[in-house]
Amino acid sequence: MSRLLLHVCCGPCSTEVINRLAIGYELTLFFYNPNIFPKEEYERRLSEAERFATGRNIRFIKGDWDHEKWLEAVKGLENEPEGMRRCAVCFAFRLGEAAMMARREGAEGFTTTLTISPHKKATDVNSAGEEAGKREGVAFISEDFKKKDGFLKSCRAAREAGMYRQDYCGCEFSARKSVN
Description:
alpha/beta, Rossmann fold, 5 strands, globular
């Protein structure tokens, strides 16, 4: 069975993606999300993702929460609308780290849960993943996990597991939008 590193943005989004991928891959989950703010929100999402992985007996790697480094990467894009350039930079930032981790871990490939969200353009996420994979010499598995009712199934599975489900993407700029 091929080894696949799965970049996980949160526990709820990972549920259906894990169900789909666990059939053909030996998974390692990688939680790398320095975009999430504030720190308490980051810890809550980390805890849910790790709890779900532990319950499924799946190896879990926690990346660093270097929010300052992430802020530097998106500097000048703070006022961009959701789904535009700031998000593309964010995808590239996180998937670049995931590609490096996949290479370090000896995984044959990597992918991400990010495309399960109806608020994310799978083409943008997959493009960032493919570029990161090329740089690191690791195959990126392009998917649109929201297809085949992926988002609906992930919401149902998260509810059944009693998971906390956030109401914004993660960064302080998307949080600002969710309260307006």
